[in-house]
Amino acid sequence: MSSFIYKMRKLKNMPLDLAVRKAWRRAVRALDCTIRKYRIQAAPIPLDTARFTGFNSGSRFLFHPQDRRRYKDHLVELGRDTGIIGDADRICSHNFNLLGSGDIGLGESLPWNEDFKVKYRWKNSFYKQMKIIDLDHPADVKVPWELSRFQHAFTLGKAYWLTGEEKYAREFRDQLEDWLARNPVEMSVNWTCTMDVAIRAVNWISGAWFFRDSPFLEGDFWARFHASLYQHGQFIMNNLENEGEHTGNHYLCNLSGLIALGIYFRDSKAVSDRRGRHAPERWLGFGLEEFEREMFVQVNEDGTNYEASTSYHRLVTECFLVTTALCSRNGIGFSPDYMNRLEKMCRFLLDIVKPDGCSPLIGDADDGRLLIPADYGSWVRHDFRHLLAVAGELFDRDDFRHAGRDFQEDALWIAGTFTVTESPGGEDRLRSTAYPDGGYYVLRQGPAYCLVRCGDLSFHGHGAHSHNDQLSFELQIGGLDIIVDPGSYVYTGDYRMRNLFRSTLMHNTLEVDGKEQNDFEARNLFEMKEQTFARCDGFRDNFFAGSHQGYLKKCGVVHRREMTLTGHRLEIIDKLERTEDPLQTVQGYAASFILAPGVKAKKLIDRFVLHRQGIIVEVTFTNAEDAECQPCWVSRRYGEREESRLLRVRGRNSKLRTVIEWSIHGKEGF
Length: 670
Fold this sequence. Notes:
Blueprint: H1 3-12, H2 16-42, H3 68-77, H4 81-92, E1 95-96, E2 104-105, E3 114-115, E4 120-121, H5 142-148, H6 153-163, H7 166-182, H8 194-211, H9 219-238, H10 249-265, H11 280-298, H12 310-329, H13 336-352, H14 385-395, H15 398-403, H16 408-415, E5 433-435, E6 440-445, E7 448-453, H17 458-461, E8 473-477, E9 480-483, H18 495-501, E10 510-512, E11 535-540, E12 543-548, H19 552-555, E13 557-565, E14 569-578, E15 589-594, E16 600-603, E17 608-612, E18 615-622, E19 626-637, E20 640-651, E21 655-664
Antiparallel strand pairs: 1-2, 3-4, 5-6, 6-7, 7-8, 8-9, 10-15, 11-12, 12-13, 13-14, 14-21, 15-20, 16-17, 17-18, 18-21, 19-20
Helix pairs in contact: 4-6, 6-7, 6-8, 8-9, 8-10, 9-10, 10-11, 10-12, 12-13, 12-14, 13-14, 14-16
């Protein structure tokens, strides 16, 4: 369904007076856009460099050049220096690996406006009238956005502090000058998403603090830099992503950018005569007020993010942690309630960590970050423990520190320090835990870990970043994944694959009569109508029971699932409970079990036998009519997929019993 038809349908379903007002506002905005477009084409927005001649921020950042020696010594002590310099040298050679591109040389001049994976370039034009998405073309606008976030500037800066070599300062300057020349304000693809403008601003600020004392970077460069950085603040304030029914990670990033810019410019005489929306004090005050408010809009009482995605929970937590740390450096605090909710967000991250240290990728995942202070070229997308390292310092919690003990560099840059701890403190092991507001239930028994998804769709039922994963689960045994969520893979670059990865059949649950749990339209990639209304019917240390209504009106049944976990066995009972309507019949169901890459599967007469590195798993089904092993895809990072296998079980009986039993042989540490 086209965007126009979708918008018209929404207007049709509104009360007449509201629809008229919305249509009128859209018409006015469209006229304003057209007028501004022709105005900018006639007279492009200039950089007001004169105002910023000689400007230096008087604020603090997460780190300060006066502490350069301390940071250098810590990086050497942690053994990080060689890897940092290697990453920075690859950046200087314009070798990147972004959103599934693989390591690729991007040439002498970086392709800021291109999806270099498919060789498509967006021509410069007015940002509000650019066509950035064409579902019939494989170009993915996230690729130029990702490169233009400048998240690699942090690594260039670290290498500069470690070596003192001006080539890193020169590379920062050359890239930024090239970007400015090819991305006029409001006239390129890299001004079409305010979130990315804000992330770029935060990363430019990090670059400024690394390179501000470089003798190679002259005053004219800094004047252009600061003039453009200030324009970023103006743009964010004029294009806030808060006009939809719900705010989300985009708006939160807008606010992170405004707060960082407000702090950076707030003591500046260069902008001291600015008034209204574009006074940095206004950016800061507005950003802080909204930032605290969004904590209680976007984060549930139990600390889970309301976008129904573990990866977006990671991104939102990072925005809150980084911005809170930045504010703290500058004498700005948040309320105790805010800090308590943020601590709960971090506790959720701790509770969903699997024994191997990684986390399930439930719902959408697009590799989004605000800053990448460590491991720029190699950070693991499904390992969230770098945030726990930061949270350990912020909240002085040894359990967070212990979980994040391999990510001390992240804590160093964001929190300003790291503390070595040999013990998690308190409980020696994590226990089964329920997060009903977010819809996550974690069962832990011996070497077994099982996470079950059962809750609202994202944005309280809108489904923007949700998948059809109700009553789906992940299973890890002895620190090795056996049954997994397949991930997301891609968004607009391939809408068919997008829909496959969010479909019911690609999750470890039941599809009934070929229907989706929640209906979605093939070309409307960020909405899924809430039909499941899933609920937990029972939870204790080794037991979960839940149900959903996704098939109630379509097939006349409610899907109920019970799961009992012991140290060597997981039993799953699926029931299709009929309604009172005798005319509705179920033609059949298909149950899926997505195997992790590396799991070998063999079908015997009455069961499947799975093998992975000394772990043997037997899977048997009762009341199934047919079971087979099929090829499938699993994605652990955006734009990449790898081959795997799934078990597909079909039947017509109203009850399916699945027993998964395992033994561990010769695996070190277990």
